[in-house]
Amino acid sequence: MEPTRAAVSGPAETSSIPAEVLARLSAEASRYLAQAATVLEAVAGTEGARVGEVSALLAERLRRGGTLFTCGNGGSAADAQHVAAELSGKFFLSRPGLAAVALTTNTSALTAIANDFSYDEVFERQLSGLARPGDVLMAFTTSGRSPSIRRACEWARGHEVTTVAFVGSPGREWAKTCDYAFVVPSDVTPHIQQAHITLGHAICALAEADLFGPHGRPPETAAGAGRP
């Protein structure tokens, strides 16, 4: 039987790589991880109060029957989907699903809107058909320059949908136009995105706990129970 990859992985597979290459990459890996940790440490030192505020707002809007919408492009689309999935599924607790929709996932809508109108409208047009006053929009853009994100937030602000921006240092000025903003103090895209998902996770955890208490609900009562 041919051995599995796991069975042959390890030092033997890197034995043919020059030692200086391994040493250089190891040093660069340590430097990268240290830089990422520094960004997260900075976020932890400044954003705690805002995370608590947005978590409380989100929990209250969901409790009243509102919906969370999320959007982003590229890696930020993955972050937007990730946050929506944590709420529509579960984070820590066994509890009913929550109304959270990623506007990045309907490929037929995305391609039709982009083809028939423009890509700049892919999130705005979906919001116009789905969102209602009192809903919440979380918008992820490391640069703050994405036209599709800007248009979605502009529509939301004009229709009583609360906007929460997740940006990096380049998006600081635009983020001021949103109701709430998390500005990661970095201009390195991957470090910004790592901080964004950490912030998103914190908000999901706190909103879930606020809605359902520290232990949630037993699986038998959570199934099909709908909104809190």
Describe the model.
The chain has 228 residues and is an alpha/beta fold. The protein is 57% helix and 11% strand. It has a single domain, classed as Glucose-6-phosphate isomerase like protein, domain 1 (Rossmann fold, 3-Layer(aba) Sandwich), CATH 3.40.50. It has helices at 5-8, 11-14, 19-46, 48-63, 75-88, 107-116, 122-130, 147-158, 172-175, 189-212, 219-222; strands at 68-72, 100-102, 136-140, 162-168, 180-184.
How are the secondary structure elements laid out?
Blueprint: H1 5-8, H2 11-14, H3 19-46, H4 48-63, E1 68-72, H5 75-88, E2 100-102, H6 107-116, H7 122-130, E3 136-140, H8 147-158, E4 162-168, H9 172-175, E5 180-184, H10 189-212, H11 219-222
Parallel strand pairs: 1-2, 1-3, 3-4, 4-5
Features:
five-stranded parallel beta sheet, alpha/beta, disordered N terminus, Rossmann fold, 228 residues, single chain
